[in-house]
Write a structure and sequence with these properties.
Length: 300
Amino acid sequence: MADTCGQVLLGSGLTVLSHPLMYIKVLVQVGHEPLPPTLGRNMFGRQVYQLPGLFAYAKHIIKTDGKSGLFKGLTPRLCAGTIGTIVHSKVLQKCQEEKIEVVGSGQKAEDGSLQHVVNETTKEMIARSCATIVTHPFHVITLRCMVQFIGREAKYSGVFDSIVTIYREEGILGFFAGIIPRLLGDALSLWICNMLAHFINTYAIDDSTSHTGEIKNCSQAVTGFFASMLTYPFVLVSNLMAVNNCGLAGGLPPYAAIYPNWLHCWGHLSREGNMSRGNSLFFRKLPAGKMYAIEQKRFF
């Protein structure tokens, strides 16, 4: 219990610190570009037209809504983080007690073996999926609170009011908009990260060398970053589906088409070449073949 409380407190602190970053990323994912491109230099020093980065976008939000404007949607996100941590801990503990084994049932897998990695990854996937399902309604509310910045709406003003609004307009399914790509992306990211790390640690790192532990931890971090890059389109599609056709300007044309399901959203983004939109908030290049609409504050 003490460990869970510590995780909740640490997670809440990190959530508060990282919230402005997520806020700006979500607005970019939706396609909101309030500032026109400017002439700057890329990482190689060459002059190019660039879109405003993280700090320029943050300054615009502060100018519009004040410093507190950077923390829209923080309350439901904190609720999601707290509940998710508790659910994840309880489910993982239950999986350990039940000794769930996917491969090698009936025999103890050796630490570091492929069998052990598969079994532990499966338990982690179950725990994460349960936490995601339970907290997704708060995630949807968080995203919609953020996207209100585009149309200057106040439709989602609080957690309880937002719950009533979503239930009244969309029913129970409204709380789980975009959950399928989110679950798929989380599962794929976890498996890619753990399996790559296992093969690197097993076949590319010599256990007889010094600092083996630090090297293995580093490989886990690198594979985690690589996995998150590969599965980013799932994150993008999930977030867009969570705000699509919900009555906010950011989820309606011209910002977004009305998607019947997440596969249509994926296909549309793929055809437009926008599968990585919002993946980077620094050195943001102009979309190829797109024109900037000043009045609509978006590219078309």
